[in-house]
Amino acid sequence: MTLADLPAARDHAAAPAPAAPLDADAADDLTVWPHSTTRLPHGDLSVGGVALTEIADRFGTPAYLLDEADVRDRCRTYQHAFPNADVLYAAKAFLCRAMAHWVAEEGLGLDVCSAGELELAVTTGFPADRIVLHGNAKSPQDLHAALRLGVGRIVIDSASEIARLAAAVPHGSRQKVLVRVVPGIAAGGHSKIRTGTEDQKFGLSITDGSAQHAIARILDQPGLELVGLHCHLGSQITTDKPYLCAVRRLVGLMARIKEHHGITLPELDLGGGHGIAYRPGEDALDITTLARKVRTELAESCAAAGLPVPRLIVEPGRAIAGPAGVALYRVLSVKRTSERTFVAVDGGMSDNPRPALYGVRYLPRLIGRRSTAAPATVTVVGRHCEAGDVLATDIQLPGDTHPGDLLAVPVAGAYHLSMASGYNLVGRPPVVAVEGGHARLLVRRESLEDFRSRDVGL
Prior knowledge:
- The chain is 29% helix and 23% strand.
- It is an alpha/beta fold.
- Strands 4, 14, 15, 16, 17, 18, 19, 20 and 21 form a 9-stranded mixed sheet that branches. It has an 8-stranded parallel β-barrel with strand order 5-6-7-8-9-11-12-13, surrounded by 6 helices. It has a 3-stranded antiparallel sheet with strand order 1-2-3.
- A hairpin with a 2-residue loop joins β20 and β21.
- The radius of gyration is 23 Å and the shape is globular.
């Protein structure tokens, strides 16, 4: 039996099905909010010791806040769960200079996907040797920046990248690389974020021999040092089974590499994709259980293959940044039709495209006043000229919700601003850090002057 003959582990989670509106008690549940969230009088909430209405008044809306203590605590949770492993924060979830500084101080490495992310991190002071560069189509600028700045690892994602990278490595030096392989495992919360299968753009297949061929080519390049294998199965994975299957398949490939080439690879990168809950009651991946089972499976698989246990690498992004973030919006209009009530806010798909892309369901909450009105089922929509600009469908808000009200959306720290656009020239919101009762601006609001200064032609 070959690796290709092994049955694929499948996470059957699909795009979320329509759900009944949550009742008022569920809407008042704070379990998915940052750990520091507390209730205040008059219907307000505090995060990091700062009232959300104070953030809105001081910085305007839309605005995003990050609970610094929550981010640091989640970093420490990973460090504790994965001792003797390398934990890399996946910068694509959200990156700014403060975030890079926080994760560096907590001892994490960094996973970047472009020269832009790389330069921002290094110029912040992040150690380049603790950075890994990913990407299925790295530009020449990406590779030259990585070599110039001295990144610790570059993940090779395609056969064509081998020669390009080898040619760019300065004479007499060597660049450590990992090979991203496709283990043939379907996992993830939506078809658009499943990356461990054969029918997507990332990695090199074990089944058709592409990974093995690329490995042989890398070993022939004196400027490249192959140190391990990498895989990424997808995002929003809420069960440990796909990761355990990936361990078995990658250890099997490591055994074949040793048999055919006589080398023992010292590193194994399982990527990230650890699922979190966006609404109360949703499943989330238990990191402590995952870590324990992965370590056990890795030890047993290596013992069976006659290999030493490689150093494990994991790459959480969403699981660190997501639950630590909150988005604040101001209601602009309330429109009642024969079928729905639409509550329109001053942001939308330009700062959070995820509902339009993946059908993600959020649970906005009225803050700043305590309403005695009965709950009403509403759909919260954005201000953009798209019918798909919907932030939350069929949720419950007080029936007297009106223009000027403030809505807060939890679990907003990942893949909102990192995927934000300039649609309708609305301008991307600011990012505010809260910690110990203080709020400070991390990223300023994008302004009309920013738009004018970039537009240089007439």
